[in-house]
Amino acid sequence: MLVFMETDDSAAAAGSSITWRVIDWTPLQPQSWHPLPHEPAKATPFDGAFERALAAFDRKLSYEDYAMTSIRSSSFLRRVLVVDAASSGAMGIAMVAFAELLADLLQLPVDLVSQAGIVLLPFAAFVAFIASRSEPSRFAVWAIIALNAVWVIDSIVLLFTGWVAPNALGYAFVIAQAAAVLLFADLEYMGLKRSTAVAA
Q: What average pLDDT is seen over the chain?
């Protein structure tokens, strides 16, 4: 409710009474607010796309991991591995059994000859095991190739760093066995390329 006071200039000057007018005013009542009804989100083609892509990637990754770690060994690779294992084993046994004789003949330290032979024995066993598998690990074949390459590098370093002083026959022996090991590494790499990945 509001009260207004009205005056007349002439009446005010004459000292007349002042008129009061009462106006009944009712403020507007706020309308009640009702939230909009909730509408369920509409399905889109992108719903679950991330989950589907992730699942597909996991399946592809699992297949590639399996394919990259398992191969169907080619007959060529298997034969090369068998020869490598046999020759490494025979050389290891000879170097251990006849270490002193070979050391005198080649003018190489006897400990070097015997220790090299000892190293060859587990290597030969490992290569023979991989050769016996129809579906060997790709990583295992690469490990054999890498070990053969390390053997070749060590043989060259041995001759040209002055660690040993072999005679001419000793030089010929070290160079010949390094060349043979390098040939095995090359043939094993060729055999690995001919082998096929195992299908999932």
A: 78
Q: Please state, in angstroms and rounded to a whole number, the distance separating the CA atoms of residues 81 and 15.
A: 132
When pLDDT is cut at 50, 70 and 90, the band that residue 90 belongs to is very high
Give the pLDDT of residue 161: 86
DSSP per-residue codes, the chain: -EEEEE--HHHHHHTPPPEEEEE---PPPPPPP-PPPPPPPPP-TTTTHHHHHHHHHHHHHHHHHHHHHBEE--HHHHHHHHHHHHHHHHHHHHHHHTHHHHHHHHT--HHHHHHHHHHHHHHHHHHHHHHH-SS-BHHHHHHHHHHHHHHHHHHHHHHHSSS----HHHHHHHHHHHHHHHHHHHHHHHHHHHSEEPP-
For residue 91, what are the contacts with CB-CB under 8 A and spacing of at least 6?
117, 120, 177
Question: Is there a contact between 139 and 197 (Cβ–Cβ < 8 Å)?
Answer: no
Mean pLDDT highest for which of 21-25, 82-86, 133-137, 164-168?
Answer: 82-86
Burial class (CB in 10 A: 0-12, 13-18, 19+), 6: exposed
pLDDT value at position 134? 84
pTM: 0.65
Cα separation of the two ends of the chain: 88
Q: Which two tokens stand for residue 77?
A: 């690779």
